[in-house]
Structure formats: C-alpha cells, structure tokens
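LAB NOTEBOOK - FOLDING QUEUE
OPERATOR: T.R.
BATCH SIZE: 2
PURPOSE: Compare the predicted structure-token outputs for two unrelated chains run back to back under identical settings.
PRIORITY: normal
REVIEWER: second-year student, initials M.K.

ITEM 1
FIELD SEQUENCE / FIELD STRUCTURE:
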Amino acid sequence: TNETRTWGTQLAPTRPLPGLPSPERALRTRIGAPVLAALLAGTITLPGVAQPTASTSATKAAATATATATATATTATAAGAAPSVAAATAPPPHSPDSPDSPDSRAAADAIAERLQALYPSTRFGTVNVTAWPGVFEVSMGANLAYVDASGQYFLFGHLYDMKAQRDLTAERKETMARVDFAQLPLNDAMKEVRGNGSRVLAIFSDPDCPYCQRLESDIQGLADVTIYTFLMPLVSLHPAAHTKAVSIWCASDRLATWQAAMLRAQAVPLAECPHPVDRNIALAERLGINGTPTLISGDGRMLPGAASRDRIEAWLQRSSEGSHVVTEPQGPMR
C-alpha cells in the first residue's frame, strides 16, 4: 500500500552474507551485521535482544574478526582481506584530519567528482569524510552510503562507533532530515490559519492521493495551527494530478476548492494561471521528499505518511530540543 517516487538511480546494495543459520539471519536483518557480529563475539549486549549462539566455533571466530569493522563484513570481503581476531581488540583508527579541515574538504570534493564521472546516471548529494580513514559518506537524496577513495566499493547500511556505542548513520540522518522552515517558499503554498495559528505545519500533498485525502480529514480537528499546503502531484502514479493541482491553485478560492476536492470529492473546474506546482515538485526533490503526504513541523522535523490526528498532535507538541526526527513513514503514503 505504500507507494513513493524514487529520485535518480539507486545503486544496488550488497547481498546478505551466506551461511548464517535462520535465527542469526533474522537477527542480522533486525539489528545489522556489525552489531550481530559483536553480539556473537560477546563484546557487547543490547537490551531486549537475546544473546545469540554461534552455530560453530568457526562462525564465532569469524564474528569476532568481523566486529573490528563498524560496518558490514561485505566491505572486508570486497577488499580481498578478512580482519584478524587480534585486530578485533585493537582500538579503532582515527582520521588525523577534521571533517571540516581544508584537506578533508578537498578530498571529499575529489571523491564527489569521481563518483559523478563513474556513475553519471546517479544523483549524488554531499560527500563527507568519516572517522574511518579512507571511507567517505555520500548522500543520495535521503539515503546514505559509504564509499572508498576509488569509488568502486560501496557500503549500504549503518556505520557504528562501537566504543562510544553510537549509530553514526542514524545521527547523520537526523541532521539531514531537518528542514529550515524559514527557508521554505511559503508563498508557493496554500495557507490556512486556525485559531491563533501559533503552531506552524507544512504539508506536501497530492490532490489524487487517497492517503492525503485521509490526512486532510483527520487534521480537521487540529486547533491553533497555521497550515501551509504545498501541491506536489505524483504524476507517475496519478497522471491527472498535475492538471488538478494547477486548477486548484488557479481557483478564485484555492483553500475552499482544495477542501471541497479532498473532503467531499467534488470535481475541480479546469483553470490555468502562473503556478508554483513544478517548483514544489523540485523543492520536494531537494528536501528528499519522495512520497505524499509528508509533514514538516516548525522546528524542521519531518513526518512521512498519513498519521492519525492524535499522532500529529503529539508530534507538534514536542519541543525541538532533543526531539527525534522521524524518517520512517508513520502511515500509508503514495
């Protein structure tokens, strides 16, 4: 039931490691290979996760070796060498350069140029150095991957600092998912003020998206909020949505026409005028929004999917300080 648009060409992730028994394979899927390896090696424990038992001593030894890396063991395999058990106990290496140093920035810029030359059909975003020497972080829309200096080897997954017990990828995604609300082109959105309008909310919505219609119905009870609705038709799913979005924007009363279409399924009279619909689609792409509905709070948090009114109310009430950025859909999307 979840349908989203994917921007650009995605590189295929590496295949799962063969040979793990079914329980371990399931646990690997749940928590990721590096954490599973450390669990098998007995070096860490996680609350709520039973300590797995390696099927053979060879499996445990391999897991101990794998625990030295902070990403999946496919990287070591691709490089043609397996880490030793002794290396698993060695302290992790640290990059001598700060990610913001001129040398680091120059190296990241060089990798960005190389990647674009090697994979011209893939839309790459920022490239940054990581604390893992020789490994660079690259963004592709809302997705993150890790790549070596040659641009040949990619790692899709999470990068962990096992010593600090930090999921570096999750932390980075939280930062990436924040939107500077003040920079949104609010003049390109329909504006509705309810009550004192003290809270602000932006919604990217498709007039032919059934989940957007459900959301529009659910949020009718929200009070004291200013809602900015950006018309974002997904023409690959709803071919007529672009024409409908333009007609809604060009109506004499945009908000009334929008609500009549979304809440009462009334037909939208055709109309044409200068409109921001194409700009909204481009904006969504830049923000990494690939499905509707997607909500953005005043402090820049994203909430994908048709969440319930109670869920949205609680989400709006949360302070930006220490709040967790939601990147997984909280309801169905198109």
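ITEM 2
FIELD SEQUENCE / FIELD STRUCTURE:
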Amino acid sequence: MKAIDGLCFSRSPLLSVYADMSVCCEEYENSDKSMLELVFAPCSPVAGSDKNWIAAPDEEIIEATLTELERLFPTEIGPGAPGGGANVEKSTVVRVPRSVYAAIPGRNKYRPSQTSPISNFVMAGDFASQKYLGSMEGAVLSGKLAAEVICDKAANRETKRIKPIHESVTAGEEPKAPIGVKGTYPIAFGGGQEGSGANVYHP
C-alpha cells in the first residue's frame, strides 16, 4: 500500500488503528507486498458495537475488514482499483476482548488526578485522569503529568488541583466480592486467541 507509511488512527467505525508492517518494521520489509495489522473495534455490544464481532466467524470479520479497507483506500483495494487492486494471500484473526476497558459515558469522574491529598504521593497510570482511554498512550501521558506535579512541588510552584473524589467512591457500601475469572482459556486472562467457538465469548 502506498497511501500509508506508518501507524494510522482511522476514521472508520470498525478499524480503529492500523499499520503496514512491511513499511514500519524492518523484519517485515517488502517492497512488493504489504502486511497489514489492524485493530477491529468496537468488537462487542459491551463496547458500543451493534454486533458481537468477538463471536463472529473469522470469514465474516475478514470480509467486513476488506469492505472497510476498500472504502478507505479505493485506489489500492477492491474492484475499483487499477488491475483489481490488492489481493489477500493470508489472514489471521486474533481476539482479545479485554484489551481495553469500555469507555461508557460518565466514567471519567471516577478517574483520580495525578495530584493527591497526600503530600508525597502522586498518581500515574492509564487509570488516572488524562485525555486518553486506558492504554499505553494514556499511561505515558499520565506519567508526564505526574512528573510535572513532582517538579512543581520541588520548585514550590502551585500544582494542578486535586480532583474531587466522587461521593459514590467513599460511600459506606457493603463490600462486593470480585467477579473473578471464569474459565482457563487465554481470553479469560486477557490474552489473545485465534479461531472462533464457545471460548471466544465474554465469560
């Protein structure tokens, strides 16, 4: 593919991020072929999809992916492309339903600020308050924001305000037992799994 030369965040409702690995990674370098890696999301109704893609057959996921790629890259993929466009030689679907949390409306108020009520305690992590979802990018940004707080404190500068703790967090509710892990297959522990079948559903 000639239209992309790095990691791309997509405007597609299905393909959230993708990259041509034959351009991005030296070990996959190939001037004649493209090796695409794509994140297909949202993948289930829990995350806002109108279809449970986690439980869909590989063939259906691949077909939907190709349809989206034809729409995104009409000059390179699909019947409208010169010479019929690119052809798929090999494909693999890997399901990781717990790769990120579902960012449902109203949850951001529960994320703590980097500044805390304890003078020598600073929060950092993808769970903390920052503009990204729970992700590597969010963790890095949170770390930078936490470092700013530490530097401000060291220089006796005013730090960013402490985010108020939502009242429901401190309410004296009865403790709830954790849901726990159901099953012993990879997906139950947040790992990826190839293929379809009963084990690819959310436990």
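REVIEWER COMMENT (ITEM 2): The first helix runs from residue 21 to 24.
FOLLOW-UP: none requested
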